Amino acid sequence: MSSLTTVYDDLTADGDDVEALVLGLSDAEWSTPTPAPGWTVKHQVAHLAFVSRLAALSAGEPDAFAAQVAEAKRDFQGAVEAALIPYLKLSPDELVDRWRQERTTAAEALAAVEPTATVPWLVTPLPPAVLAAAGMMELFGHGQDIADALGRTRPLTDRIGHLAWFGVRTRDFGYHAHGLTPPAEEFRVELSGPSGVVWEFGPADATERVTGPAVDFALLVSRRRHRDDLALIAKGAEADRWLDVAQAYRGPAGPGRRPGQFAR
After folding, report:
1. How would you classify the pairing of strands 233-235 and 209-213?
2. Strand order in the sheet with 198-201
3. Residues 194 and 110 reside in one and the same domain
4. Distance between CA 136 and CA 116 in Å, rounded?
5. Domain CATH code at residue 20
6. How many helices (H) does the chain have, and how many strands (E)?
7. Which of residues 101, 120, 155 is at a domain's end?
8. Cβ-proximal residues to 61 (8 Å cutoff; 6+ apart), any chain
9. Are the C-beta atoms of 18 and 142 separated by less than 8 Å?
10. Are 235 and 109 members of one domain?
11. For residue 189, which of 211, 205, 172, 159 has the smallest C-alpha distance?
12. Using one digit for the tens of pLDDT, what is the confidence trace for 4-43?
């Protein structure tokens, strides 16, 4: 996360990095199962393209966005699966082109919104920068699924600082997903980026604390790794419980990943 770039620039850069994972794949590789049950690499990219389209509509065409999500409010899973069908019918090259167009349009549309304004989203309106950070979390999580499926390691940068901030901001989502009442007190969270920079959140004198690598924190809150496989340290019973339930998205937690499922 650099002061010389915006979250919209970093959203674009992260999209380019994930795209690089799938360029030149064979048809068989596009059909590789990913850790998400029932989803291949192609499903992952189709999902990212669809989410980019939703973000672009939210920022640029709010009425069209409302129409798009109306069905999702009645049958969320069914609407998600139906939305992927047009993308899955595309050839891999066509799908990558469409995804590139969708995410470029989304980043430009979000950047054009007045920073103090909000745009509609699935549950509550969000500031455009927050929605861009949520888009980066989508890219991170689904990009990790793709990398895991293909047996690849992704180079990560300090752009992950946006995900550190977003994961702290969405702390209560994990509690709600498990039917728990979030604590009233703020936590202290200190996370180190790939360059060695440290990001600090919450009161310096908080008794509940979490420390560790920002990459591990992003893997935790995107539920792409089990906490047992990460170098995150909790101090305090409530902070420890948070690491068990943490997620940076609303809704059911899902099964997540098993301890030891992925070797470091």
Report:
1. antiparallel
2. 198-201, 188-192, 209-213, 233-235
3. no
4. 20
5. 1.20.120.450
6. 11, 4
7. 155
8. none
9. yes
10. no
11. 211
12. 569 999 999 999 999 999 999 999 999 999 999 999 999 9
Q: Which CATH number is 199's domain given?
A: 3.30.1050
Which pair of structure tokens corresponds to residue 38? 């029932």
Q: Which amino acid is at 238?
A: E
Tokens of residue 154, six digits: 């992704």
Going by C-alpha positions, the residue among 76, 79, 62 that lies closest to residue 250 is 76
Rounded to whole angstroms, the Cα distance separating 142 from 73 reads 23
Distance in angstroms (rounded) separating the CA atoms of residues 216 and 176? 22
* The pair of three-digit structure tokens given for residue 115, joined into one six-digit string: 């920073």
Q: What is the pLDDT of residue 4?
A: 53
Q: Are residues 124 and 205 in the same domain?
A: no
In whole angstroms, what is the distance from residue 35 CA to residue 146 CA? 8
Please say whether the beta carbons of 164 and 199 come within 8 A. Answer: yes
- H/E stretch holding 68 reads helix 62-74
Same domain, 134 and 223: no
Taking the C-alpha atoms of residue 4 and residue 23, their distance in angstroms, rounded to an integer, is 29
Segment 54-68 shows an average pLDDT of 93
Residue 186, classed as helix, strand or coil, is coil
For the whole prediction, is pTM greater than 0.90?
yes
Instruction: Determine the Cα–Cα distance for residues 163 and 140; give it in Å rounded to an integer.
Output: 9
Domain that holds residue 238: 160-245
Total domains present in the chain: 2
Distance CA 144, CA 154 (A): 8
Give the span between the Cα atoms of 214 and 241, in whole angstroms. Answer: 19
Using alpha carbons, list the distances in angstroms from residue 174 to 55, 178, 220.
23, 6, 11
